[in-house]
Amino acid sequence: MGLKITLKPGERMIIGGAVITNGPAKTNFIIENTVPILREKDILSSEKATSPARKIYFSIQLMYIDENNLPAHHKLYWGLVKDFLDAAPSAKGRIERISEDILNGRYYQALKNCKKLIAYEEEIIARVQ
């Protein structure tokens, strides 16, 4: 049994590295094999990766959709994580969960956990202001 996807009119998604934009009508289709999929709500552009946690999310997104360049994406991730932990050591547990997902090749799960890191970062910034 495949994965059923329903796209809204004009909704974008990435399937296996290809960016797809739906036409003017709602569309249903079935993904019958295993391939990286990101819906529009989960896609972060490089222009919107404006905070340290969002940059970490973007690096994981690259790992997920661009396996051909994994060593470069991993290097970027570990550098960003080091800088993040230097600034916010209280995020250690969150970073460990994300890193464990990455080390086990669970990039989609790492993205989900990184959304929690982004929320935590926003919480920290709100407390400081």
From TrEMBL:
Top-level taxonomic group = Bacteria
| Keyword RNA-binding carried by entry | yes
Pfam families cross-referenced by the UniProt entry: FlbT
**Source organism of the structure:** Desulfosarcina ovata subsp. ovata
Task: Identify this protein by name.
Answer: Putative flagellum biosynthesis repressor protein FlbT 1
Going by the UniProt record, its keywords in alphabetical order are: Bacterial flagellum biogenesis, RNA-binding
Sorted alphabetically, the Gene Ontology BP terms of this entry are: mRNA catabolic process; negative regulation of bacterial-type flagellum assembly
GO terms (molecular function) for this protein are: mRNA 5'-UTR binding
